[in-house]
């Protein structure tokens, strides 16, 4: 959450509003931060949970049976408020969310630190790390092996076992812009991860190239109406 969002939440916490109202208010501040940050993929409730897992867990209802209904309603309201029409319906792994919340209740130790390396400021317990290790062991399908022979999932687990504070790595999420990963992957490996499954741009046709070439010698002062004064339709089939 950005500084303004934290400030608003802090002010609200000092008011006389009940806990459920604070949680709802905080949730919609979090949605705004997520929508502002999500530029590549369609926004989704699963994406929001990955955006800030610690925040997602702390704002979840106390009754696990209400997770899906409550969060789905919040997400629907949020996309309507922000006029977002193009979004995905991907759901979080609710069993994992519940397990993380249960572990947080056992190991929650607040820290005043707000440095990027400590992320949520919440330390993790041995039982939490055992849960992360077990989740890694139950991963299905072939692991991601880079061209150098490095296994991405194993490196994520290695970092997760050493990370003393809640971090996206505990949910098997890697952000190549996080400087922490430079200790576990080389620069070339991070670039390979970043470029994985990038969509290939279609080849530009000769007709389009010819039309674009007209603008190399285009003189706006001689064409005040903005039209290229050349005969023929270069975009016709």
Radius of gyration (Å): 24 Å
Q: Please report the total strand number as a whole number.
A: 0
Percentage of residues in DSSP E strands: under 5%
Q: Largest sheet at a glance? A: none
Q: Secondary-structure element sequence? A: HHHHHHHHHH
Task: Give the overall silhouette.
Answer: extended
- Share of helical residues: 40-55%
Output the number of helix runs: 10
User: How many discrete domains?
Assistant: 2
Which structural class should the secondary elements be placed in? mainly alpha
Low-confidence stretches: 1-19, 108-119, 231-237
The CA-CA distance between the termini, in Å, is: 50 Å
Mean pLDDT: 75
Q: Would you kindly provide a written description of the structure presented here, covering whatever features stand out?
A:
It is extended and about 70 Å long. The chain is built from ten helices and no strands. Helix 1 runs antiparallel to helix 2 and helix 7 runs antiparallel to helix 8. With 237 residues, it is mainly alpha-helical. It has two domains: 105 residues, no CATH class; 103 residues, no CATH class. 47% of the residues lie in helices and 0% in strands.
